[in-house]
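Sequence only, no structure available. Ideas?
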Amino acid sequence: MLKSHYYSNLTEAGCDEAGRGCLAGPVTAAAVILPRNFRHTILNDSKQLSPKTRAILREEIINSAIAWNVAFVDNNEIDEMNILRASIKAMHLALDGLKNIPQFILVDGNSFYTYKNIGHKTIIKGDSLYFSIAAASVLAKTFRDEYMEKINSEYPHYGWDRNKGYATAFHRAAILKHGITHYHRKSFTLTDTQMNFDF
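Reply:
I predicted one. Tokens follow.
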């Protein structure tokens, strides 16, 4: 079972993002403050969970959390500032929307900029170690997936309802065939130069 807190005497918010490595769409971040006594036998890193389990957990997290928020930074801003800065901006925006101000922030990964002089700890694979980060990972992933499924109806050729904008062979082949959309990240390598397609 994951850990419920880093400091036992502070109100902690867990932060995580989804979509950092995608070729299209926004990077999405969530911030979650859970009750100190929160426990769950299934909640874990969202990448370890099935879509059905993530959907169930999303509702449980929303109903159980003291505070939660999800924020998006779109592909144009990603191109302007780079994906690392955009990911951290998304986490800051998610924190901005919390109805309660945390006293400490737990962040998945190894990069973060100080937020409003609140102490923080970056934790590699934190989404498989702390409930609050795992909860943030589930919210970020499910809200982003939902967004990509929605915009898939505008551009069905790219398979975003299945690949969610990640760099699958199908997605890269579709870019070569149909070109890019206004949702694609132009600062990313969108095609694999080693791939040969005969259309």
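The CA atoms of residues 92 and 116 lie 9 Å apart.
Hope that gets you unstuck.
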